[in-house]
Structures are given as C-alpha cells and as structure tokens.
C-alpha cells in the first residue's frame, strides 16, 4: 500500500441534504459523474459497483461501504478495472466524503488514500475537482418553477 493520499474540498451553495442526495442518488450521480451507473444501498458492509464507458472502453469498478453516517459522511473502498492493477485488497483505495454545512453553504471534503504516486495523486485531484465542479453546477443551477 502507498502512503500517498489527497484531500480536496469544494463549497456548494446548497444545504447538506441536497449535496448528500447528489452524492448517493444514482440518477443524479449519472448526470455529473461521466455517465456512470452506481449500484449500492449505501449501508455499511454493502457492495458498490460503478459501470460505464470511458473513451470507448467499458469498465466495472467496485468497492464496499466501510463507514456511513447518512447525510454527513461515507467512506468506501474502491478499485478500478481501468487501473492496470489486479483486483486484490492492496490495490484498493479508500475514498470518503464529509459534509459540513454553515449558513446554507456545504463544504464537501473528499479524502482518497493508497495513491500510487504523485502523478496519480495530481490526476485524481483534477478528476475529483472536475466531477464535483459539475455537481456544484448542477445543484446551484436556478430551479425552473
């Protein structure tokens, strides 16, 4: 296991409950996360499977919900079929989302560990910022009445 990890944050001008829904609702996730389909029940110990297509290649990534405090925090293991690594425990990463709301603005903090090297860390951080930037755009868009 690598001891390289990252922490990245984004502020979203929406209540934590809406951000949590965007992090855990498969229909919303698909809208901002590269069209990925997510299957899980978000209960501790449950499997998570992400499927989709990226640059013409299909993928099936997987993990397990390790800890969850609904509405505030979730930590899951994660392995990508596109990582070029074997599907074995030492190749899984842990990813967590933590929400903190102050005055209707929610800070989403992501942590990711077991990153292979500094280049991979930089790549991951750019991807997360892009994904969460799209989620922020989606959530902060004015609602049509």
From TrEMBL:
SUPFAM superfamilies associated with the record: Bet v1-like (SSF55961)
Sequence ranges assigned to domain Activator of Hsp90 ATPase homologue 1/2-like C-terminal in this UniProt record: 15-140
Gene3D superfamilies assigned to the protein according to its UniProt record, in alphabetical order: 3.30.530.20
Domain of life according to the entry: Bacteria
Signal peptide span: none
Similarity section: Belongs to the AHA1 family.
Protein name (database record): Uncharacterized protein YndB with AHSA1/START domain
Phylogenetic lineage: Bacteria, Pseudomonadati, Bacteroidota, Sphingobacteriia, Sphingobacteriales
